[in-house]
Design a protein that fits this description.
seven-stranded mixed beta sheet; Rossmann fold; binds S-adenosylmethionine; 181 residues
Length: 181
């Protein structure tokens, strides 16, 4: 992401909001956790175990090193893997997070099916991503989904009780629930 910009400045606010949202729904899995900055924030604040999965081994190495530096490696459980085929048992998690990763997943419907599989009934799914048509798209030269598209994909994947709000002009926070069936 390069030099400091308004989106980098938003990080503490976004991490805090996500940590608050998942505090009552553990265990937590950060899907496509990257270098583990969010995981580190949640684990150090809560003292709870937190799981992370990412397809990039180099990102996971950075996440492991960060956790060691912060003295929280005993709380952080990292796995190399694909969001489209998660290496976790059914109904393993109380919350799932996708921060800045929804748009990165190649076969998103498949990944969303996996989120439904590994989440416990009543569990939460938090998505934070830039949306189509905003400044982030130009800054990072990437394509994002519109908010309606995100909501429709989550609904189609079996999630309900969706709430959405903006953390910044084009950064959306979506919370969804897997309702008991
Ligand atoms: C923009 S980064 C966001 C990382 C982190 N969530 C954050 O906010 O800093 C997107 C991440 O998605 C990961 N990724 C892309 N496709 C993936 C997939 N199919 N399964 C798991 N991780 C994936 C990348 O390796 C990268 O770490």
């Amino acid at each position: 992401m390069g030099k400091q910009n308004v989106y980098d400045d938003l990080e503490p606010k976004i991490h805090k909001r996500i940590a608050e949202a998942v505090a009552d729904a553990v265990p937590v899995l950060d899907i496509a956790c990257g270098d583990g900055r969010l995981i580190g924030f949640i684990a150090s604040g809560s003292g709870c175990n937190i799981y992370g999965v990412d397809i990039s081994v180099s990102h996971l190495t950075a996440a492991r090193e960060k956790a060691e530096t912060r003295g929280i490696s005993h709380l952080v459980l990292l796995a190399a893997g694909d969001a489209q085929k998660l290496c976790f048992l059914d109904k393993s998690f109380g919350s799932l997070i996708m921060l800045y990763s929804l748009h990165e997943i190649q076969h998103l419907p498949q990944a969303l099916e996996e989120t439904r599989r590994v989440l416990r009934p009543g569990g939460k799914f938090i998505v934070v991503d830039p949306i189509k048509g905003g400044k982030a798209e130009t800054l990072w030269n990437e394509s994002y989904y519109g908010l309606e598209e995100i909501e429709s994909m989550l609904t189609h994947a079996g999630f309900s009780e969706l709430t959405s709000d903006f953390l910044y002009d084009d950064i959306v926070f979506v919370s969804a629930k897997l309702v008991l069936s």
